[in-house]
Amino acid sequence: MKYISKNFQFPSKMSDLLQCVEELPMEPVLSELSLKAFRGGNQLPIWDIAEKDFQMQKEELVVPLLLQNWAQNDPRDLLLRLGSKQICVNRLRFMCYSKYAMEHLKGGQRELVLPEDRVPPEGLVRTCKWMNDPVAKLERSFIMQVLATALYLEIEPLIKQVWFCLDMVEEFSEDQAFGVSYEAHQLGNMVPMLGLDTTMLHRIQRFFLTLVASVEFVELPLRHVRCLLSSENVAVNSEKEIFYSAVRWLTHDWTARAQHTATIMETVHLMLMPREFIIELQSPSTESAPSCIIQQNEFQQLIYEAYSSHTLMIFNDGSKLFEQLYDIFKIEQPVPRPFICHDLCPYHRAKPDDPEKDFTYDDFLRYLGIIQASGPSNWKTLTVQQNSRSFKVPKEESLPSSESVSLQN
Predict the structure, then answer these.
(1) What SMART domains does its record include (predicted)?
(2) HSE of 311 in the Cβ direction (CA atoms, 13 Å)?
(3) Suppose 339 and one of 27, 54, 126, 352 were both cysteines; which one would form an S-S bond, judging by CB atoms 3.0 to 4.6 Å apart?
C-alpha cells in the first residue's frame, strides 16, 4: 500500500478529486467459484473420534408417536358399501384386521363394495363395532351374521373368538344352540360350513319338546328334523313322544311331505314303543295316528319290522340262538333316550321304569299347548334323571376347528 507523501496536497476542487481517484490502481479480479468447487470443500474434516459417538438416539420413537396421533384423530377415511347401506371406518385399522381388505384395497382407494349375497348387513355393523373395540364381549344375537362377515372379510381374530364361544357347550344353553342352528340355516351360503347347523341341534336335550311345540319346528327342513329325531340326546318321557313329533312335522304340510314318511319314521326307535301301541298302528282304523300315515305301505313295513324286533327283544334269553337271529335280521337294540318328567303333563310317568301311560296324538297336542302357555323358558325347570345317559356329541358332528373353517372359506 502506498503512503501519502509529505508534499501531497489535497485537491481543492471536485474535478481535481476525481482525477486523483482515476490514478489509483484497480483491485485484483477474483474468479467466481462455488463452494462445491472448492478443493476438498465437499468433504467433512477427518477427526480422530470413534464413529459410534455420532450414533445419537432419537428422543421419541416414530411408532408410538404414530399410534398416538392415530388414536387422537382416528379418521373414518374408508367407505364400505353393502347395497344401500354405507359405513365409514378407519382404513388403516380395517386393513390391519382384514386380509380381504389388504388384498383388495389398492393405492389410495377409499371405497370398498361388498356383495350382499355374502355379507349380512347386521353382521357388518357389528363387525365394524368389534374392530373399534376388539376386547368387547360378543352378544348371542346375530352371532352367526358376525361369523359370516368375519369369514368373508378374513378377520382371523374375530373368527376364533366366535368359534370359541360356539364351542362352549356348558355355557351355551340349548335354546341358544337352536337359535344358532336356525340362523345358520337362514343365512345359507353366507356361512360356508357344512354341519354347523346340525351340530348345534345335537346340543338340544330338555328343550326338545318346547321346540316341538313351536312353529319353528314344523318349518324345519327335512335334514334338520331327521337330525333332531335321531339324536340320542333329546329328552322325552316316552319314545311315543318322538313318534308323535314326527307325525306333527309330516302332517303340517302333508301334500309336500308325504314322500318323506319312511325317511322320518326311520329315525324313531319304533321297537322301544309299547307293544300294544305297535299292534294298534298295524290297524288301518286306529285313532293312535292320522290314517294318512298309517295307510302308507312303507310305514306298515316299518311297523312290521318293529313288531318283530320287539318280540325278539321280549323273548331274548341271551342264548347264542338269539344272537344269531339278531345278526341275520340285522337288529340293533336302540338305547332309550334321556328321561324327563314334566309335572304339567297329565300322562308323564315319574320314573323311566314305571309302566307307560297310554296317550293319543290329541293328548300329545294338548300337552304342547300347555308348554306354549307356560312360556319358552319353562323347560329349564326339567331335570334329566340320573339313570339316563349324559350329554353326548357324535364324533361325526363335532365342531371343526377355526383354522379349517378359514380354509373352507
Answers:
(1) BACK
(2) 10
(3) 352
